[in-house]
Amino acid sequence: MKSFRALWVVLVLAGTGNAQTHQHGPTDSARASVRIPQLAGVPVIDGVIDSGEWDGAARLTAFRQTEPREGAPATQATEVLVARSQDQLLFAFVAHDDAMRDVRATLARRDDVDAIGDYVGLVIDPYSTRTRAFYFLFNPLGVQVDGVWSRGWDRTWDGPVSSRGRAGAHGYVVEVAIPFATLVKGRVPRAAWEASFVRLVSRTGEQSWWPALPRSGVPDLLAHTARLEGLEDIEVPGRVELIPVVTARGGEYLGPGGRMDGGVTARMRLGSGSRIEATWRPDFSFVESDVPQSSFNERWALYYPEKRPFFLENQDELSTPAVSYVSEPLRLVHTRTITRPRYGLRFLSSSGPSFAGLLFTEQETAAGTPDGRSALARFLRRADGGSQAGLLATWRERSGERSAVLAADAVLRLPTHVSVATQLAWSAARRDNAQRSALSLYLDLARDDGRSFQQLVYRRVPAGFVAALGYVPRTDLQQMVTHLGVWLRPGGAVQYVLPMWQSVDSWDAVGARAEAEYLPHVEVGLVRQTVIWVGWRSREEVYLGRAHRAARAEARITTRPWPWLRLAVSGRSGAWIRYDLDGDSLDRTFVADYREARLSADASLSRNVSVGSEFARNSFGGSSSVAPRAMWQFTARASVQFDAASSLRLIAQHDPDTGRWGASAVAARELPLGTQLHAGVERSEAELRQRTIGFIRFSRLIRW
After folding, report:
1. Contact at 8 Å (CB) between 544 and 520?
2. For 62-100, how does the pLDDT look when each residue is reduced to its tens digit (9 = 90+)?
3. Dmax of the chain from CA atoms?
4. Whole-angstrom Cα distance, residue 606 to residue 378?
5. CB proximity list for 482: less than 8 A, separation 6 or greater
6. CA terminus-to-terminus distance, the chain
């Protein structure tokens, strides 16, 4: 294994040896550009290009494929009309298609990736950071998916945008208006805007871009954008926003009259891209409940994503970004650990290549008494080419324990498709007059040129490391991860074959071998969004002083055989380690037979109605002292989207850990600027007890 890693390092160094003769992307002098004219009138955003309303707009054509035929002209022509008004960017996508019967277009809720199907869109970098940008994707009916691009799609960010689409016999049109206030705060440096435009034809997997994007440039997309000129005078003035939220709930366990909860969030923009935000009892948005997860046979705490709007914005800038696909740096900030905030204050400043953020919160118990405080400070500086460096400090006081973390991180992107991410974090914690401190290290080296990739990750987390405001489920660990792969592209129905190797070797902090896992696997991509993945996972582990060895086969298939149907099937079979401690902490861990099967299906019955279900069953064999165990999980859902803002959702699910059945119905009216109305009912059953809850939730965006 050591010789294998030495060979990997040689390959990377060989790739960097010609650093002076290779470029990440086009030079500034060769970069494509387009001048954005200001229209006399503002087009109506309705998916119809009426006569004269887009006259004078810049027109972009000549999209070229990134997949499956790199550099070839797009098989389906796409035109983009680009213009601006006094306070908005305006786009009209005209997507021609000679097989509209195969185009996937479903009216769905915002950010529903599974429903979006075919799409057009853009990635826009208003400050020319070439590290972080916003992206907006729209299906043929104008349904929007948006977020932040930073070496991948992050959907946690949402911005006010208007979009409408309309499909015809020979293609579809999507009109879009993006307020400048969605993208920038304060004044933007002169001629800093950059963007790329994309289209996906889902039935063939064809992805085309303007300007052209080579496969080797996908990991560094922002090095291949075009300059947007004519936006030199953009300045977003200060504005105050207020979002009060009221939730009323009723049910037999809540007592007579039910329960009323309220909260409010306020934002005030300052000059130079800064703003202050404050919240009192921020809405947890239980309308979007957590997806059930099984904790059976899990040694580490489960991860649940943040859902509260107050904490979501700029969340990606608070953490060290990952540069490989198999690992990420220590998650030192996970605001979900702030379980019941009474109030919170934030100061955020995004000005060109710099970002600074401060956060302070006070928590409370269910009875309303104080329950600790949390604070963090973050500074980030970006450089041309995608490199960046940052500092982070966190502090937490709760239940008689105080802890703090100081960290520095950096990402270096070299001109030969090599990226390096590093993170150094020191923690100190005090409880009951006992103090402990520790220093953790993370190093991630990755090379990806679009034809092959090599990734090597090292992390060291001592036993005394405490990140109370983060998510670090495992300590007393040294770990090395290796990931290799090469893209083969036969052409035709087989779009690619990707054989890969992954290994994970772990030791405790003093160097004793803890575990090793090896995974040779292959992925095959076919037309109609069909992907087949097959692998063989073997594992060796020393657990509580006892050695175990196991292996299992794994496979999964996802496909869209017709535009209206998506299927996913996966399974695991073989032997695996079953962790078991009895009431006296006696280790009864052993290797047992293991089986797992999962099936999910999503169908669009019409452009407004969709249904879906997921079923999973897994089972472990037993031993002379431990009984076999099997459990299953089931979810069924249906949704009706009446228009872009109004919907009805029905969900029924079974939680495998609690054995609880639950069902809910939610009607929603969600306007893009933050005004929302939800009403629904939830019913659950566990251990012969039934519980029914009705609720109404209303939020209103007030701006001046």
Report:
1. no
2. 999 998 888 999 999 999 999 999 889 999 999 999 999
3. 81
4. 47
5. 4, 5, 8, 455, 456, 457, 501, 502, 503
6. 63
Q: What are phi and psi of 703, to 5 degrees?
A: -130, 140
User: Which is more confident, 513 or 211?
Assistant: 211
User: Which residues, 6+ apart, have CB-to-CB distance to 178 below 8 Å?
Assistant: 88, 89, 91, 124, 136, 159, 161
Q: What tokens were used for 255?
A: 């007592």
Q: How far is CA 111 from CA 145, 146, 283, 567, 664, in A?
A: 4, 7, 20, 20, 21
Q: Summarize the confidence of residues 420-433 as an average pLDDT.
A: 92
Query: Is 631 exposed, middle or buried (CB count within 10 Å of its CB: 0-12, 13-18, 19+)?
Result: middle
Tell me how far CA of residue 28 lies from CA of 215, 471, 559, in angstroms.
Answer: 20, 40, 41
In percent, the amount of the chain with pLDDT more than 90 equals 43
Residue 287 binned pLDDT confidence (cut-offs 50, 70, 90)? low
From the number of C-beta atoms within 10 Å of its C-beta (0-12, 13-18, 19+), residue 66 rates as buried
Sign of the torsion formed by the C-alpha atoms of 464, 327, 286 and 596: negative
Q: For residue range 443-493, list pLDDT tens digits in order.
A: 999 998 888 999 999 999 998 899 999 999 888 889 999 999 999 998 888
Q: What is the pLDDT of residues 136-166, one digit of tens each?
A: 999 999 988 888 887 677 777 778 888 999 9
Query: Can you give the pLDDT at residue 20?
Result: 36
Look at the block and give the residue holding tokens 């002098």: 29
Query: At 639, which amino acid appears?
Result: S
- CB crowding 586-623: b at 16 or more within 10 Å, else e: eeebbbbbbbbebebebebeeebebebbbebebebbee
Residues 6+ apart with CB under 8 A from 565: 601, 602, 603, 604
Collapse the DSSP code of 688 into the 3-class scheme (helix H, G, I; strand E, B; otherwise coil) and give the result.
coil
Q: Pairing state of beta strands 235-236 and 494-507?
A: unpaired
Q: Nearest Cα to 450, choosing from 485, 426, 420?
A: 485
